[in-house]
Design goal:
This protein is an alpha+beta fold and about 475 residues long. The protein has 13 helices and 22 strands. The strands form 5 sheets. A 7-stranded mixed sheet has the order 15-19-18-17-16-20-21, covered by helices on one side.
């Protein structure tokens, strides 16, 4: 007999429900319940519970079969083979009838709430060990945007369950000591914000490089926010001074930098893919996504969220075609929360080579190595430990390579992109958003990547370096 309470509405959840619906969904409920009264807009929706996940596994007799694959991997089976086998099991399984009924019923109710039949929704994965201050699972499981209709929703839910066993997620849990069959997955179904008609992005309640806590850093681009999170574009960047936000007559925007914003993600055509990536116009590339009033509103919301949680936060936001702003996710910032303040390293460049490329310097270290220019994470076998990874952009599939790199250089991305966040977490120096690294830096070339002299730096050709701890 299965437990029937398998769906909860966001407004009925709080941070105390992380074990029930995962950190992402619990945080959405926490903000709706406590910050809506202060004007913070969070789109509504519902979440499946951890019990729904266990019901799904048990209805298809999957627990033992998953454990067999994990054991085989530990005993020598290739991780890609084991992961593919587990995802295949999940993909061919059926959602139990009581879960199907609960999902479709809640989806119809959501349609009634927003006054639309078959509303377009974001279907997000939320692991029960996710978004903890001591663990960063963000980006390891899948999100599906512009999901429309009951059949598409049910299929997206199965894909979310399968994504708990991507190769990178299996590897991360194993490395950090999480039992693979004690981490459940909740699914969040949230009303889509039509940012395909406007813009979206990410903001942090501190400076992501220095950890300076008195600013809000906002990145923005046109279209759906995935382009910023995944580092597919060079976004606008806005920096706001928090202590003066309470002064309504002031505009404490410290700096604004227009990004190249080379492309944007929009809704796909009817009957085709849910989303599509298209080039931006010259006018879009030259224009700021946000005006000063919108920058300040987001910064004030970010400060309220930080004050409520009592820690620095990593927040995703979106703006619809009517100009309304919304917060669609919020999680604890993990990089500076775990940094060792007592560690001091000094670096010295003994010779200076010609600067070949420049971009945003992530971190403050210097590294040297041989260029390995990769187009796809599938080329991992070509990457040698200690090389400099040069690529267009990264996503979570690249993390096994990034962990082996001496430094990272990308064509695209901003300070809140995947490449920037993960390189900070790993302590690997990176130069992000160069625009031309993959075409300028040659395979096998010896280079030095310097992030110790402000925003720019990547020197090559015999530039030796010395690190003293």
């Amino acid at each position: 007999m299965f437990e029937r309470a398998v769906v909860c509405w966001f407004e009925d959840l709080s941070s105390a429900d992380t074990a029930l619906v995962g950190g992402k969904n619990a945080s959405l409920g926490e903000m709706i319940g406590n910050l809506s009264v202060h004007g913070v807009r969070v789109p509504g929706g519902f979440a499946t519970t951890a019990q729904a996940y266990w019901d799904f596994l048990d209805a298809n007799d999957l627990r033992g079969r998953i454990r067999e694959q994990i054991t085989a991997w530990r005993e020598g089976t290739d991780l890609a083979e084991a992961g593919e086998a587990i995802r295949g099991m999940i993909g061919s399984a059926e959602l139990p009838p009581h879960l199907v009924d609960a999902l479709t019923s809640a989806y119809r109710q959501l349609g009634d709430r927003v006054r639309r039949g078959d509303p377009d929704v974001a279907v997000r994965s939320s692991a029960t060990a996710e978004d903890l201050p001591e663990a960063s699972f963000a980006g390891q499981q899948e999100t599906f945007l512009n999901v429309t209709g009951e059949s598409a929703l049910l299929e997206a839910c199965k894909h979310c369950y399968a994504s708990l066993f991507t190769d990178r997620a299996i590897s991360y849990r194993e490395h950090h000591g999480f039992d693979h069959l004690k981490v459940a997955l909740s699914i969040g179904v949230q009303e889509m914000v039509r940012s395909d008609q406007a813009g979206a992005g990410v903001m942090f309640t501190l400076d992501t490089d220095s950890g300076f806590p008195r600013v809000v850093l906002i990145n923005a681009s046109w279209g759906l926010g995935e382009s910023v999170v995944a580092g597919k574009v060079d976004p606008d960047q806005y920096l706001v001074f928090k202590p003066l936000l309470e002064c309504s007559e002031l505009v404490p925007v410290i700096s604004k930098q227009v990004g190249r914003k080379q492309s944007k993600i929009i809704y796909g055509r009817c009957g085709g893919e849910p989303t599509a990536t298209v080039p931006t116009t010259e006018q879009e590339q030259a224009s700021f996504v946000l005006g000063d009033d919108e920058i300040l509103q987001l910064a004030r919301w970010a400060t309220l969220i930080e004050q409520h949680y009592g820690r620095p936060m990593d927040i995703e936001w979106a703006k619809d075609g009517r100009g309304e702003l919304a917060v669609v996710q919020a999680r604890p910032e993990t990089v500076h929360a775990r940094r060792e303040a007592s560690t001091l390293r000094s670096y010295r460049l003994t010779t200076r080579g010609t600067r070949l490329v420049s971009g945003l310097a992530i971190g403050d270290a210097i590294a040297a190595g041989t260029v390995c220019n990769l187009r796809s994470a599938e080329e991992i076998d070509r990457f040698e430990y200690g090389s400099v990874l040069v690529t267009g952009a990264t996503d979570p599939d690249w993390e096994p390579i990034m962990k082996r790199a001496a430094a990272i250089v990308t064509d695209r991305g901003g300070r809140t992109s995947h490449a920037a966040i993960v390189s900070r977490e790993l302590g690997v120096p990176a130069v992000i958003g160069t625009g031309n690294a993959t075409s300028t830096l040659s395979e096998g070339q010896q280079i030095t990547v310097c992030c110790a002299e402000g925003e720019h730096g990547a020197r090559v050709r015999g530039a030796s370096w010395l690190r003293r701890a």
